[in-house]
Amino acid sequence: QKPRKATPQTGEDTLNGHLPPGWQSYMSPQGRRYYVNTFTNETTWERPSSVPGTPKSPVKPANSPSVLTVNGYHTSGTPVHQFDSGHMSLRKASGDPQERKTLAETKGVLSETSLMINCVTFPHPDVMPEQQLLKPSEWSYCDYFWADKKDSQGNNTVSGFEILLQKQLKGKQMQKEMAEFVRERIKIEEEYAKNLSKLSQNSLAAQEEGTLGEAWAQLKKSLADEAEVHLKFSSKLQSEVEKPLLNFRENFKKDMKKCDHHIADLRKHLASRYAAVEKARKALTERQKDLEMKTQQLEVKLSNKTEEEIKKARRKSTQAGDDLMRCVDLYNQAQSKWFEEMVTTTLELERLEVERVEMIRQHLCQYTQLRHETDMFNQSVIELVDQLLRKVDPAKDRELWVKEHKTGDIRPVDMEI
Amino acid sequence: QKPRKATPQTGEDTLNGHLPPGWQSYMSPQGRRYYVNTFTNETTWERPSSVPGTPKSPVKPANSPSVLTVNGYHTSGTPVHQFDSGHMSLRKASGDPQERKTLAETKGVLSETSLMINCVTFPHPDVMPEQQLLKPSEWSYCDYFWADKKDSQGNNTVSGFEILLQKQLKGKQMQKEMAEFVRERIKIEEEYAKNLSKLSQNSLAAQEEGTLGEAWAQLKKSLADEAEVHLKFSSKLQSEVEKPLLNFRENFKKDMKKCDHHIADLRKHLASRYAAVEKARKALTERQKDLEMKTQQLEVKLSNKTEEEIKKARRKSTQAGDDLMRCVDLYNQAQSKWFEEMVTTTLELERLEVERVEMIRQHLCQYTQLRHETDMFNQSVIELVDQLLRKVDPAKDRELWVKEHKTGDIRPVDMEI
Questions:
Q1: Which residue of A283, A349, B51, B409 is most buried, as measured by CB atoms within 10 A?
Q2: Does residue B338 belong to any structural domain of this protein?
Q3: CA A335 to chain CA centroid, nearest Å
Q4: Record: contact B361-A277, CB cut-off 8 A
Q5: Which segments show compositional bias classed as Polar residues (chains A, B) (predicted)?
Q6: What is chain A's mean pLDDT, rounded?
């Protein structure tokens, strides 16, 4: 079972047309095209070649966590090396790296362009950039669960990912309950078969004779045959429907818990990175205040000493600016890591759900197939009885009985004197 | 149900060909042709005319005991009048009425031409006249149950008619047991239906959603539909098979008892008539001895007195001869009456048995018909489930679910300074 092929996005039909099986091309938030393997969820910037064996970069072993590049970041197992490239792309995104911003400017930019919700940075509604869905026209999990949600009571927030996990666990439960339902049906069939074969053994009207007797005997036997049919049905229900439904994904709950923790940890990490950013921002503010004050002092009375202090304060302010810059970089890395895992994991959950639905559909079809066969076999059972009923012949039966029981065919005659 | 038309006897095809419907012509033991109406068992010497309304003689009301003429006797409701005609025909049968037989002759004739078994006179094996079956090629009851039989223990004798009655009562019992068997089947179907509809109400996997949820709901509903099918089957089994089998011929045993007593009484009457014959025969012997003795006395010494006594003895001997003659006539009448009732009653029993077999065959066919319908209906029940299973679509289900549960499709972006 693989998920049904994604309908290509408008404008890239031709491109998609030549991708190897399973690969889809999507647009990153920055409008850069990247590629997702819908089987392995492997993702890459580089267009996968249809020629077998052509290495794709980044080259990753199948079992390593899948790699995704988003938001201009390219993150993989080795953060430090990745940091720079990430840093570089961040620079590209936010214009000339050498330019220094004042506190006011910084604040302004932040409030105008983005919105902070539960330590996640979203684009600001007013100045929201055009975001194309990762999988348009597919209602893909990876596109609709970015925000958190207040739970039913409205006390705690539930992450979009948790909602997906609950869906998965509910699906597992449904599958288990269907197996139970089939089990109950099996019991009913076994009981029915038991009663039929018991009645078939019954000796009622066993002494009926001749062609009628034969038809009756076959009718009684037909109940044993019916019982056989229903027993076969119940045993096939067990092996071909109940067991598969029951045994499908035995460790599913554990696996989901692992996913849950993994994503939750990434969110916690993101939160701590955000705290660091805030702290660095405060520090910068302090340093800039100090620098301003010292500059005013200089205007009042000129002296070498103050000149020195201003230089020192400017140095510290610049350092604080660099600190904030580094903290923001680390925050953005953490958010990208979480983003990457969200996409790959939700794509995986999506695949699992498709698999579950297909699996259940298959086994319910198997159920109707077995029910159908049961009716067919039952009909053939009755055929035999009908054949003998057609042969029933009272005259023939009388002949058989008279031949066996006749007392004498010589008729009396008158007595004579 | 009337008995299947008797195959005409060789040599009278043409004759039979022109008889009114239901009439068959047969040969009496004396080789005289007589006619039986296979519907009413009415019997007559006179060839029934096909012209409607042509009176047949003897003319009898439909409800009066059917009239049969056999063995040269024509017996009906009025014995005295019949006695003469019977007497006459007897005479024809036994030659010149005026001729007197001596005791020796009488004995001789009796032992040579006939055989007495349980007071019934059968033709003697050595001098047996050619007897054609009343219904050749039909194995008719009326042809094969004339003799009595020692029962299994060999103590008492059982009449051929009783054996026929036992067959009838056994048939009635078989019919009753078949009804019981069907009753048991009905119970099994009701139990099965109860369990199916109960399971159908069960809430297992009721929360499954989307197209899969619809298919699952239909699958559960289909059990209720199956239950309906089996309930319908069981109720039709009751009204169309069990009840008819059970209620067919409610007073049958009583009717058979009546038959039994009627025929038994005729046999008793025959026995008493036979006793009278034996008594009269002894009396004749006495008279003939006395006459002989007196004749010898005459040779010894002649006297008027003896002359007188001889005349008197001869008169008495003649009278005793007439007595014996009358007793034999009465015996033959009784035997003929019994014979007549044997033929008509066994023909009726034959008809009843054919009727019973046909009735049972019909209702067993009804059973298989109902079983067949049950399988057909069950298949249509499953069709509905199959239709919905074909419509199951994971992508559609995901769309429905995502639309309902999505938290937000705006993706995070990098934090800027």
A1: A349
A2: yes
A3: 23
A4: no
A5: 63-79
A6: 80
Residues of A in contact with B69 (CB under 8 A): none
Number of domains in chain A: 1
Average pLDDT value for residue range B255-268: 95
Neighbours of A9 (CB within 10 A): 21
Let me know if residue B142 belongs to a domain: no
Q: How far does B365 lie from chain A, in Å, by closest CA?
A: 7
Would B315 be classed as within a structural domain? Answer: yes
The DSSP secondary structure of B351-410, one letter per residue, reads HHHHHHHHHHHHHHHHHHHHHHHHHHHHHHHHHHHHHHHHT--HHHHHHHHHHHH--B-P
Residue type, B249: R
| Strand-pair partners of A158 | A149
Considering the domain boundaries, does residue A239 fall inside one?
yes
CB-nearest partner of B219 from A146, A163, A364: A364
The C-alpha of A16 sits at a distance from chain B's nearest C-alpha, in angstroms, of 20
Interface of A with B in 284-323 (CB under 8 A): none
Nearest Cα of chain A lies from the Cα of B207 at a distance, in angstroms, of 7
Asked if the C-beta of A174 comes within 8 angstroms of chain B's C-beta atoms, the answer is: yes
In angstroms, the CA A384 to CA A380 distance is 7
Q: What is the mean pLDDT of residues B53-79?
A: 35
Per-window interface: A 92-151 vs B, CB < 8 A: 93-94, 101, 106, 109-110, 113-114, 120-123, 128-129, 131, 133, 138-141, 143-149
Whether the CB of A4 is below 8 Å from some CB of chain B: the reply is: yes
Q: At what angle do helices A304-390 and B394-405 cross, to 10 degrees?
A: 140
Report the predicted TM-score, pTM, of the whole model to 2 decimal places. Answer: 0.74
Q: For the segment B81-100, what is each residue's pLDDT rounded down to a tens digit? A: 332 333 322 222 333 333 33
- The residue range of the domain holding A378 is 173-398
The string of pLDDT tens digits covering residues B273-300 is: 999 999 999 999 999 999 998 888 877 7
A43-47, B368-372, B373-377: least confidently modelled range: A43-47
CATH code (residue A178): 1.20.1270.60
